[in-house]
Amino acid sequence: MSSFGVSSFVQNNIALIVAAVASGILLLWPVISRRGKEVDTMAAVQLINYKEALVLDVREGSEYASGHVPNSKHIPADKLEQRLQELDKFKDKPVILIHRSGANTSGKAGSLLRNQGFQHVHNLAGGFDSWQQANLPVIKK
């Protein structure tokens, strides 16, 4: 095929090519846009037990009071920026972010932590709901 043939093909099929590229980008967007790692409950337990991970619960106070991971630190997502100094000693440790059902709010919290120099930020896949479904320990206040 000559260069004229390729050029002609592109011109005749530009809409198809643009649609194919756009759909490829849309398919890959969740992978590209998620800078933090998502961990399942088994990986979270491993990080807690063997890497001394901080479990940071970013849910609202009433959600946290109704049940939370043992030894977790509670800072609601909307207060995280003002309370970052409380977490400075954990910058080199894994941090597992917990929200009610996943990376909704914890995604924003994770971006904030990474921008502040936290190296090992993870979102708990499925959030606190997945922790409960796995029948892992829960403390209720």
Automatic annotation (TrEMBL):
Residues 49-140 form the Rhodanese domain. The chain crosses the membrane at residues 12-32. It comes from the Bacteria. The keyword Transferase applies. Keywords: Membrane, Transferase, Transmembrane, Transmembrane helix. SMART domains: RHOD. SUPFAM superfamilies: Rhodanese/Cell cycle control phosphatase. Coiled coil: none annotated. InterPro entries: GlpE_sulfurtransferase, Rhodanese-like_dom, Rhodanese-like_dom_sf. The keyword Transmembrane applies. Pfam families: Rhodanese. GO terms for molecular function: transferase activity. This is Rhodanese-like protein.
